[in-house]
């Protein structure tokens, strides 16, 4: 699959996540954050020169901004509250995110310097995973206000809420295509017992023409569009494993492909070197690795793509 551009993502394990980028043509990766902290949820600014992300390096997860190469990391919020999944407005002047400022998890908007905080939703439950529409007029998000995880829209001009999905199972993590005509999202459906199977779906912006993209008995989530909306990138795992790896789908040909790259730098950051003991100390690393669960070597999350 001939893909190009750069993807920012987080990778790690047990709360020790760091933010990395990968050049999709060369497969070269670069580490942007380090240390035993939770650095997560990275998003490119509209011009691709900045990255917004969350980090708990100062205590609770707060919102930070850094340059595209990881330099000039600046903390934007300092409320001591929980923050998650920040996203840029199309003009790059504001950030939408979810936080528990008033005990509930609601959606908020602020300027990129942390000023002008405005509460968008107010619900005694969870409103989360917000994102601006490409025209900046709407915020789409996930809410439990209908008694289930469903996708909702908030009109910034009229302040009206509208429910987009009414499926009997969980729909969440919506993201607009770059022309605003489609929405990609995740659906969690039970397969057997308590086991949940997450798949990627697409729908028109009004919730119609719902169609399934992935068919994998495992977890497919953290979906994001390519800048030209011809591909989607997401993370995928198989049953009985929490190790998720980057995948891409050509939406015209419906061809799926794993994004393979040298993960040795990521594994070194989380000290995931396989260690053989006893007779296993004489085995090559490739053999010893098979005795470790995949998650020992880390997992990928929250990819975001730019050209």
Can you give a write-up of this model?
- The protein has about 300 residues and is mainly beta.
- It has two helices and 24 strands.
- β13 (about 140-145) and β14 (about 150-155) form a beta hairpin.
List the helices and strands and how they pair.
Blueprint: E1 6-13, E2 16-23, E3 29-31, E4 39-44, E5 50-55, E6 62-67, E7 74-75, E8 83-88, E9 94-102, E10 104-111, E11 118-119, E12 127-132, E13 138-143, E14 150-155, E15 161-163, E16 170-176, E17 182-192, E18 195-204, E19 211-212, E20 220-225, E21 231-236, E22 245-250, E23 255-258, H1 264-269, H2 285-288, E24 299-306
Antiparallel strand pairs: 1-2, 1-24, 2-3, 4-5, 5-6, 6-7, 8-9, 9-10, 10-11, 12-13, 13-14, 14-15, 16-17, 17-18, 18-19, 20-21, 21-22, 22-23
Would you summarize the structure shown here?
The protein is mainly β and 307 residues long. The chain contains two helices and 24 strands.
Output the keywords.
mainly beta, 2 helices, single chain, globular, four-stranded antiparallel β-sheet, 307 residues
Morphology: globular
Helix amount? under 10%
Radius of gyration, in Å, reads 19 Å
**Number of separate strands:** 24
Question: What is the succession of H and E elements?
Answer: EEEEEEEEEEEEEEEEEEEEEEEHHE
Largest sheet: 4 strands, antiparallel
* Structural class by helix and strand composition: mainly beta
Unreliable residue stretches: 276-284
Mean pLDDT: 92
């Amino acid at each position: 699959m001939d893909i190009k551009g750069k993807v920012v993502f987080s990778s790690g394990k047990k709360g020790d996540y760091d933010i990395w980028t990968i050049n999709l043509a060369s497969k070269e990766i670069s580490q942007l954050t380090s240390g035993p902290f939770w650095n997560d949820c990275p998003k490119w600014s509209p011009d691709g020169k900045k990255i917004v992300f969350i980090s708990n390096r100062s205590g609770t997860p707060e919102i930070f901004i850094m340059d595209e190469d990881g330099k000039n990391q600046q903390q934007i919020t300092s409320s001591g509250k929980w923050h998650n999944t920040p996203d840029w407005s199309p003009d790059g002047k504001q950030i939408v995110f979810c936080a528990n400022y008033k005990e509930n998890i609601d959606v908020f908007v602020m300027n990129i310097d942390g000023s002008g905080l405005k509460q968008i939703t107010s619900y005694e439950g969870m409103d989360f995973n917000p994102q601006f529409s490409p025209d900046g007029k709407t915020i789409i998000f996930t809410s439990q206000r209908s008694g289930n995880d469903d996708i909702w829209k908030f009109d910034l001009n009229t302040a009206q809420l509208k429910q987009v999905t009414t499926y009997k199972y969980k729909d969440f993590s919506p993201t607009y295509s770059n022309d605003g005509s489609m929405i990609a999202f995740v659906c969690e459906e039970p397969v057997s017992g308590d086991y949940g199977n997450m798949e990627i779906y697409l729908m028109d912006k009004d919730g119609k023409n719902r169609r399934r993209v992935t068919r994998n008995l495992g977890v497919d989530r953290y979906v994001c569009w390519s800048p030209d909306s011809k591909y989607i990138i997401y993370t995928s795992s198989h049953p009985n494993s929490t190790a998720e790896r980057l995948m891409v789908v050509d939406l015209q040909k419906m061809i799926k492909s794993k994004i393979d790259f040298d993960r040795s730098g990521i594994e070194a950051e989380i000290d995931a070197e396989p260690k053989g003991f006893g007779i296993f100390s004489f085995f090559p690393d490739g053999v010893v690795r098979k005795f470790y669960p995949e998650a020992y070597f880390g997992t990928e999350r929250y990819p975001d793509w730019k050209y």
